[in-house]
Design goal:
The complex is a heterotrimer of chains A (247), B (588) and C (141).
Chain A (H helix, E strand, L loop, with lengths): L3 E8 L9 E8 L6 H12 L18 E4 L2 E4 L13 E4 L6 E3 L2 E2 L2 H9 L21 H8 L9 H5 L1 H5 L6 H11 L7 H8 L13 H5 L6 H21 L6
Parallel strand pairs in A: 1-5
Antiparallel strand pairs in A: 1-2, 3-4, 3-5, 6-7
Helix pairs in contact in A: 2-6, 6-9
Chain B lengths: L2 E9 L3 H13 L5 E5 L15 E2 L8 H11 L6 H20 L14 E2 L9 E2 L5 H13 L5 E5 L1 E9 L2 E9 L4 E12 L20 H9 L3 E2 L4 E7 L10 H4 L3 E3 L29 H13 L4 E3 L2 E7 L4 H8 L1 H11 L8 E10 L2 E3 L11 E3 L4 E2 L12 H22 L7 H17 L8 H16 L5 H18 L13 H25 L17 H4 L1 E7 L5 E7 L15 H7 L1
Parallel strand pairs in B: 1-2, 1-9, 2-6, 9-17, 16-18
Antiparallel strand pairs in B: 3-5, 4-5, 7-8, 8-9, 10-16, 10-19, 11-15, 12-14, 13-14, 14-15, 19-20
Chain C lengths: L30 H31 L2 H12 L1 H28 L3 E2 L2 E2 L2 H24 L2
Antiparallel strand pairs in C: 1-2
Classes of the chains: A alpha+beta (247), B alpha+beta (588), C mainly alpha (141).
Chain lengths: 247, 588, 141
């Protein structure tokens, strides 16, 4: 196997470029290197202006999502060896505005995320001195999967609906709202309903299912959205059948 | 230049910073809070903590036992009043986090579950599967979203603390997205910027942990405390520094050298057995295992890997079934991030830097000696960790002292005088410095990454697991030289948009300051205690060094070390005993 | 005419984001996207079968002659071809729908989530049984 590998990296400088273009770099090939290691090598040894985000290099901080050969990936968990000896194309995540090189703007997600009220809502707070809210392992299991989201934005890059309609709330934000809705300690489902039940939230989703496929943490946002659709539809049926129900 | 004004400003959006922000909001909803962080808060390194958070909750446990474990684990260098406050408040803080939605692992009856942890004699470690830090950080971050008084500056890099009239009144920061340099003023500032593992070449720490907070305080005149105490973890993956948990050895993994020999038997750590024995061989204390690695290396019995010497962690004999059942995360980390499958292959491991016991010197309320400046979390040294931190104490520490610092800073801000107008001039000077030294500098010749690598190598050889007078003195000299060279950096990137090259250069300058303070503190502590091991002074010396080293930055930029007494309340210094009596006898 | 919106030039301290327009042919770029679009289109064919069934019932109600005329209409090669294609789309639609049921319904028994195949399985089974029953009703002589 060759001892170097070629990377074609998308570059964009807002100060000088009208549009992104590709630049090739040659880096040493090592079996234990991931795409992010190659980027770091380039930044340290060849071109310090290469711009990207990264931090933990162990798949938990969610910073280093990029497109590798067109596929949304955490670059800290994507081995060069899986592509060698062919060259590798690295681009910023799809569906987001590009700030520079491989850095995208995610302000939009942060705004939508906050709208979902992603915190525990109680009608009445129990004082801490009275101890914990009880929650059985089964109750924990009911929302645990959706609490694993690391906000890496891969699901947004995979979602064609988000690409076509920037108003769409998107997979991660909805999954995280559902994480609190399903938490046995939470009583805020009704507060989240108005945001979730809109056209640009759950009903915007057409269940492409790509978000779930690319999720590095197996959160299954597509499942979260379909489940909430069912809940919302049943609520609607209930309100029609029993308008006096009050619930 | 733009100026924005707040009441309380937090530098850093990790666990401590977010906890402090909530504490300020809860205490006084009218105070305007700013969280300035160089990454989005959920990227902060708290996210990587795996094991758990200690807090006494079970009926067979007591606060005194937690305090004693902490103090003895810290080789009696902890301030005992701080430890008492810490163990006392840790359970409430962990419960508070439960009330905010943290998905703690549970018992069948719905109560919080706890697990055993190294150095803790009772089961008191709360956990959220093996992603405790991740869940704590995301819970805190999501909770801060409900407070309107908390304003976030996401992806802003703080370059300087603004000090006037003898107190800290804000910061100068760069907005990475636009390159705008701006003054953000506040009546009190809390540093929660984390540790500085990146000063060393091999570390479990994320790339963002570059000691910025320590550097900021140090340059503003606040002293750093106990900087020579740096915790190693014996089994990290080389290069990435990814931690392979103790559990891999507890399940029966072997540490072997290049001859396949279980070398720990040569270092008074017991005799090899097929099944693991508690506190023996591979299950000996962290520091002793790390020290044995150095001895093996000196004997030439380590394996030369592409990133320097390693030994092997052998799990193959445990079989795929057991590894999948008991150590799935270890297998996942090895296969997903290092391309090694422990079922069939040896895992290369080496000691890696894990945690800084030292940091910005604070009192029990997070206040530094510099008025208006507070600190909490890994960036701070209260000190509850003494000479060696116990596993699962750092997560509750950032909650307890984050909350305390938040309250103290809120009170300070409520009664502080208005911001002086003269600090704007300082902010302008700082802007000019950044532009002239980095962005517009065309005569520089040095590469940031080259100096960084040399600094990291220097730290490993001079202030690593074992230190001597000569290694430290040589290290101090090299660092001084690197400081001079770093004045002459040539950036590849002169752009204003998301200039990570500039950030790296600014981080390097903080790291060099912090590194110098570490080496100087280590040089002057002529004893061995906890994580600080001097081969030329192998004994603990309570007469002279039952004291915190406190390092100031002198006018010429060099570190100057003073000493502060350790506060002892109820636990007089004793011997730090490892393992069973039988083991101890063989070790002596 | 240029397709993308011309971005204004860079001004100091104002980030100038580059926004890529989604290609009109985005759904051809990946098999997963194409499959999704085919699934969406399948609903047109489902609607076609519904219309056909209504027309069929209407023809039956108007007597044997009208029904014979309807049957002649079905024998038209174009209609035949359309119905063969529609059949495959409806089958595709049904399969994806039943698979969806497993994802949308998080049913828990004894605290454990019921695995997906136990939810979609009975759906598929019922589908097969009903289809077989109808086939038996139609084909028995």
């Amino acid at each position: 196997m060759a001892d170097t590998i070629k990377l074609e990296i998308s570059r964009y400088s807002p100060e000088t470029d009208a549009a992104p273009h590709f630049q090739s770099f040659e880096v040493p090939f090592r079996r234990d290197w991931v795409v992010l290691d190659a980027l770091n090598y380039i930044k340290d040894k060849q071109d310090g202006s290469l711009t990207y985000r990264w931090s933990c290099r162990m798949g938990i901080c969610g910073s280093c999502g990029m497109l590798v050969n067109g596929e949304p990936k955490l670059t800290c968990a994507t081995f060069l060896a899986d592509y060698a000896p062919a060259s590798i194309r690295v681009e910023p995540l799809r569906n987001f505005p590009i700030v520079r090189d491989l850095v995208i703007a995610m302000n939009d997600f942060m705004r939508k995320f906050q709208k979902m009220k992603p915190w525990l809502i109680r009608k009445e707070e129990k004082p801490v001195s009275e101890g914990e809210y009880l929650q059985t392992p089964e109750q924990l299991d009911a929302y645990k999967q959706f609490s694993m989201c690391i906000n890496c934005m891969l699901c947004y890059a995979a979602c064609p609906v988000y690409g076509l309609d920037p108003l769409f709330a998107g997979p991660a934000a909805i999954a995280l709202a559902q994480r609190y809705n399903l938490d046995s300690r939470d009583q805020g489902a009704k507060d989240r309903f108005p945001v979730l039940s809109q056209h640009d939230a759950i009903w915007g989703c057409t269940f492409v299912g790509e978000c779930t496929r690319v999720c590095p943490k197996h959160v299954d946002p597509a499942g979260a959205i379909q489940q909430y659709k069912l809940t919302a539809a049943l609520d609607w049926v209930k309100s029609v059948v029993m308008p006096w129900g009050g619930k | 230049m733009d100026v924005t004004t707040h009441d309380v400003l937090l530098v850093g959006g990790g666990g401590a910073g977010l906890r402090a922000a909530i504490a300020v909001s809860e205490l006084n909803p009218n105070l305007k809070i700013a969280v300035v962080s160089k990454v989005y808060p959920m990227r902060s390194h708290t996210v990587s903590a795996e094991g758990g958070a200690a807090g006494v909750i079970k009926s067979d446990d007591s606060l005194d036992e937690h305090a004693y474990d902490t103090i003895s684990g810290g080789d009696w260098l902890c301030d005992q009043d701080a430890v008492e406050a810490f163990v006392n408040e840790a359970p409430q803080e962990l419960l508070q986090l439960e009330h905010w939605g943290c998905p703690w692992s549970r018992q069948d009856d719905g109560h919080i579950a706890v697990r055993p942890f190294g150095g803790m004699k009772k089961m008191r470690t709360w956990f959220a599967a093996d992603k405790t830090g991740f869940h704590m950080l995301h819970t805190l971050f999501q909770t801060t979203m409900k407070y309107n008084s908390i304003f976030r500056y996401d992806e802003w890099f703080v370059t300087k603390l603004l000090v006037d009239d003898g107190r800290v009144q804000g910061v100068v920061a760069i907005e990475l997205m636009s390159g705008k340099i701006q003054a953000i003023t506040a009546k009190s500032v809390i540093l929660c910027a984390g540790g500085c593992g990146r000063v060393f070449p091999f570390t479990t720490n994320a790339s963002i942990k570059t000691g910025d907070g320590m550097g900021l305080a140090y340059r503003a005149g606040a002293p750093l405390k106990d900087m020579e105490f740096i915790q190693y973890h014996p089994t990290g993956l080389p290069f990435t520094g990814i931690l392979i948990t103790e559990a891999a050895r507890a399940e029966g993994g072997y540490l072997v050298n290049k001859d396949g020999y279980r070398y720990l038997q040569d270092y008074n750590l017991g005799t090899p057995t097929a099944k693991p024995v508690l506190r023996s061989m591979e299950l000996g204390p962290r520091d002793r295992l790390s020290q044995a690695f150095v001895k093996e290396q000196e004997k030439g019995r380590t394996i030369d890997g592409p990133y320097g010497p390693v030994v092997h962690l052998d799990l193959r004999h445990l079989g795929e079934k057991l590894i999948n059942a008991k150590l799935p995360f270890v297998r996942e980390l090895c296969t997903k991030y290092q391309n090694v499958d422990p079922v069939h292959e040896l895992i290369p491991v080496r000691p890696v830097i894990h945690y800084m016991m030292g940091g910005v010197s604070t009192d029990i309320n997070g206040a530094t000696p510099l008025p208006g400046l507070f600190a909490a979390g890994e960036v701070a040294c209260v000190s509850i960790n003494g000479a060696n931190r116990l596993g699962s104490n750092s997560l509750p520490e950032l909650l307890v002292f984050g909350a305390r610092a938040g309250k103290a800073a809120a009170e300070f801000a409520s009664s502080a005088k208005p911001i002086s107008n003269s600090i704007l001039a300082q902010a302008f000077d700082e802007q000019r410095r950044i532009e002239n030294q980095f962005l517009r500098n065309t005569t520089g010749r040095e590469r940031t990454s080259t100096i960084r690598e040399e600094m990291q190598q220097t730290m490993e050889t001079s202030a690593g697991i074992y230190r001597t007078e000569s290694s430290l003195a040589a290290g101090a000299k090299t660092l001084r030289h690197l400081q001079e060279r770093s004045d002459n950096l040539a950036l590849d990137d002169h752009s204003l948009t998301f200039n990570t090259d500039l950030v790296a250069a600014l981080e390097l300058s903080f790291m060099l300051d912090v590194a110098e303070s570490m080496v100087q503190s280590a040089l002057q502590r002529t004893e061995s205690r906890g994580a600080h091991q001097r081969t030329d002074f192998p004994k603990r010396n309570d007469e002279k060094f039952l004291a915190h080293s406190v390092v100031f930055r002198a006018a010429d930029g060099r570190p100057r070390v003073e000493y502060l007494p350790v506060r002892i309340t109820r636990w007089p210094p004793g011997e730090r005993v490892y393992g069973q009596p039988a083991q101890k006898a063989s070790a002596s | 005419m240029k397709s993308s919106v011309a971005t204004p030039p860079y001004t100091l301290n104002h980030p100038r984001w580059y926004r890529k327009r989604v290609s009109t042919y985005w759904w051809l770029l990946r098999w997963e996207y194409l499959r999704f679009v085919l699934r969406e289109i399948s609903s047109v064919f489902v609607a076609w079968f519904v219309v056909l069934t209504i027309v069929q019932i209407y023809a039956v109600s108007r007597g044997p002659d009208a029904y014979a005329e309807f049957q002649d209409f079905l024998k038209n090669p174009f209609v035949l071809a359309l119905n063969v294609i529609s059949f495959f789309f409806v089958v595709f639609h049904s399969i994806t729908w039943f698979n969806l049921s497993a994802r949308a319904m998080a049913i828990r028994i004894g605290g454990k989530r019921v695995p997906g195949f136990l939810i979609s399985g009975p759906n598929f089974a019922a589908w097969l049984v009903i289809s077989a029953l109808i086939a038996w009703l139609l084909l028995r002589e």
